[in-house]
Model the fold of this input.
Amino acid sequence: MKYKFRKKYLIGITVAFLVTLLNFLYFLKTRWFYSILIISLVIASIQFWIDFFNELKRQKEIEQKFLEFIRALVSTVRSGLPIPQSIVSIADEDYGALNSHVKKLKNQLEIGIPLHNALITFSEDTGNSIIKRSVSIVIEAEKSGGDIEDVLESVVESVVSVKKMKEERKAEAYSQIVQGYIVFFVFIAIMLVLQLKLFPQLTKMSGSFGSALGGLGVGLMGGVSGEGGALNLDRIFLGLVLIQGFFAGIMIGKFSEGDLKQGLFHSIILMTLSTLVIVTVKGGI
Done:
């Protein structure tokens, strides 16, 4: 899938800029500053993600309609018509999201563009990997002089098998996706408990212990601090959470869809939500 910057994205970017400006003016020294800053980043990118999901939905519809198109083509070819005439004769049917591409394919064939070139353009315009593979098989079969009916039927079976495997993998991975999200947020909860409850108590205890030793002439070297001391555990824990969120999202997307782009989307969700939860609960980074 290819993406281009669209003018409508400027609306979200403008709103995000205004929210960020108000955030600096009125919430700079409050506990809500970082939370609002993260929300403004979400606003800036929300239209892109809407288009991303709309494109995924469109691609799924294209795959489904491509099956209908190939089945209709098989029936027409069996009647004795060559592939170009068969495509022209079935191009006026309703193929949903594939309509514009089929119409373009028909127009190219009618003005005399070779079938191979027209099919390649058709597959490239759809931007769908399954259609690209199927079209390449059809082109190679026609070049080699094979039985085109059998080839088209095998293409249909191949597309159906791929779609079936995707659906089965997604269904089987659903519980793993839910489990992955639950485990990740449990991890965040544990980190927050450590930061807000356990380590402050340990710091007080070490401070009292250090004072007692200081009275005996014994000094403690170094220390742990969440406020800019020798070691800032708050930022270390935030870094750990972000790393965990990134790789957990990649794994979730790979298991469920077999696609790293989907994994990146899950990574962004986990990283954004975890940062928002942490800075809201703690009131800062």
Remarks:
- The longest helix spans residues 148-215.
